[in-house]
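Let us practice reading a record.
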Amino acid sequence: MEENVSNPIQVELKKTNRKNKSVRDMDKIGVADIVMAAILLLLCLTCILPFIHIAVKSISSDAAVLARDVFLLPKGINFEAYKSIFRDGSMVYSIVYSFLVTLVFTVLGMIVCICAAYPLSKKRLKGRKFFTFICMLPMYFSAGLIPAYLLYQRIGILDTVWVLILPLVYSAYNMLIMKTYFQANIPTSLEESAILDGATNFQILWKVVLPLSKPILATLSLFYAVGRWNSYADNMYFIRSENLKMVQYKLFQMVSSASEAQSITLSEAAAVQSTPEVLQAAAIMFVTLPIIILYPFVQKYFVKGVMIGAVKG
């Protein structure tokens, strides 16, 4: 009987303590905290508001956009710009082609990164410091654009899909993050146990290390994918064939032509009925949405992986 009486009393006491603790925490909030919160809010708005503005412009009427009446709410909703982009075969082809290039680039990049980072994270590797120095050297020095162009021409990858994949497939920065993660988060005892059980180095990597490294794998995969998806400079310098140009470079050409001549060039089948400014906004949304859709699926691993790589490195 006493137990039944004491339990509700204990519950009430715990609730009271929690409330008092919350009040004390609120009392600790000072001017500095409010200023920091305001700064963070402003930084968030600088990222969110431009995106909302572009999205709203892409579905607003041409007259409202030309009159500069569109800010954060659409006016005269229509989807003609998106219809024009989907009717234009070159843009649809470019986004599918860009997706495939990004996928291959990300897979190859992660394979190269893992194969470099895992051995360099092991103290038993002879000459580890020397090999680490050699692998980190490209992070600080590069030959430059003209030598790179001549090299690609010499080895025969100029104006091919491989010039968009092979030169950037190794990233010293990503390798350093993964190496640090392996050193800080994979216990040596696990690998020693696997070696005693007769496992090879490849089996240890595949069955022990990689299953425990999902956060950093997701983080670096996102780094590779976003970097390749958003890049267009190598398209500009090393690609001449129209069917090999990625969607970001197509968007760059579209925005440039609209800025210079107030017109946007799509194929005749697109039957463009929108103004260049509305079509630009629609194209930007069209190119940005794949990354926005992908991010929520890896956000949990992304945040965890970034914090581990930054704090423990």
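A brief commentary: Residues 1-6, 268-272, 309-313 have pLDDT under 50 and may be disordered.
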